[in-house]
Amino acid sequence: MRLKNHPKIVKVTVLTFMLGACSIQSSINDSVVKPFSMNDAEETIGSIDIYDDKAYQYLDNETLVSVRGKGFDWVEGPVWVADGNYLLFSDIPKNLIRKFSIAHGNQIYLENTGFSAPSAKGPGSNGLLINQKNELVLLQTGERQVSLMQAPLNQPKARFTNLVNNYHGMRLNGTNDGVFDQQGNLYFTDPAIGLDVVFKAGDNRQEKRLVEKQYKKPLTREKRVQQTPFAGVYRLSVHGELILVDDTLTVPNGIALSPDDKTLYVSVSDKRAPAWFVYDVQDDGSLANRREFFNAQYLIGQPEQQGLPDGMAVHSSGVIFATGPGGVWLFSPEGEVLAKIKTGLATSNCTFTTDEKTLYITADDNLLSIPIK
After folding, report:
1. Is-contact 323 310, C-beta < 8 A?
2. What pLDDT is recorded for position 4?
3. SS3 content of the chain, % helix, strand, coil (to 5)
4. What is the residue extent of each domain of the chain?
5. Strands 287-295, 263-268: parallel, antiparallel or unpaired by DSSP?
6. DSSP letter string, 165-188
């Protein structure tokens, strides 16, 4: 493992006042947040497995997983908007963001969200965040950048300010998921997912060369070529400094912080080595003491274990709700498996409402929800 004891810093052109502190929910003052509740949906799926009595603080074996929408493409990046009580989530292949609310169900919120060409030409946004100014920040996989929407949340427009798109002049791979710490510094993952020409290690495992992926049909667009010879985990500071904090993970994907900002969790969506990792966050924001949090290799290919370690949401108690093989895993901060929400689907991400009474889950072409105690 090679962490950055003295990380290289890249100064990027960024409007730093736009990077407000953020959690997985909107961070507006709780005093103005309207109460939110909803009944179970008519259609439910899956089941709950409890492995540790601590899990009963959050759910029961009888808790129902409600289907809130289906028939999408591949949905990801859910974020709760407290000022309005609605959910935003990305439909990546469709290059759009969808909106779910009790009053109106599922609607298209915004098109061309991650790739400036028409929707069929490339992947859209992935992870979505709400900053302290109640603005939408997008991990734009298609444009390979982190951006801020230049419009109010209630009047969305496909106008974006690029916050960062390169490291030492090399284009990022395809920004995937992110999390703000309490100061407004953004940690994000940048795997080579969705690129057509990628770096592969040679026989000696040291040298890397670019290899073109083979598709059944010829591409009708320009090839997307990897420029950074690694998949990075980065920290974009509130001052516009881009710091590579780890370049050793094969496919870094989901990312989350503990409630005290002292621990960072990163999932690795690699079929050959699927796992969750954990780091200590130092006072300067760098990472140290990387260790394996949970290894999921034994689950790959097993019945009812669809999917790979992916997006996460951390409860205020410190319990990690982590999407992975077969559904959503509940881990204690020490790495104990407490429970599993079995969706029966490849499950990509999850997020809480502000009061943490509902967990929304994106799973394949479905939007799900489950009540939390």
Report:
1. yes
2. 40
3. 5, 45, 50
4. 9-28+41-371
5. unpaired
6. -EETTEEPS----EEE-TTS-EEE
What is the chain's mean pLDDT, rounded? Answer: 89
Q: How far is CA 154 from CA 151, 174, 273, in A?
A: 8, 27, 41
Our CA dihedral for 64, 372, 258, 297, rounded to 10 degrees, sits at -20
Residue pointed to by tokens 């410190």: 318
pLDDT at 14: 42
Give the whole-angstrom CA distance, residue 128 versus residue 180: 11
Q: What H or E segment, with its residue span, contains residue 80?
A: strand 75-81
Residues 129 and 240: their CA atoms lie apart, in Å, by 18
Residue 213 pLDDT greater than 60, yes or no: yes
Q: Does 191 have pLDDT greater than 90?
A: yes
Q: Copy the structure tokens of residue 251.
A: 């496919």
Q: Quick one: 235 exposed, middle or buried, by C-beta within 10 A (0-12, 13-18, 19+)? A: buried
Q: Does the pLDDT value for residue 25 go beyond 70? A: no
Domain 9-28+41-371 has CATH 3.30.565.10: no
Q: How far apart are CA 315 and CA 329, in angstroms?
A: 13
Q: What is the pTM of this model?
A: 0.89
End-to-end CA distance of the chain: 39
CA 163 to chain CA centroid, nearest Å: 17
Half-sphere exposure of 205 (CA within 13 A, CB side): 1
The number of residues making up the chain comes to 373
Structure tokens at 239: 């001052």
Measure the CA–CA gap between 212 and 64, rounded to whole angstroms. 44
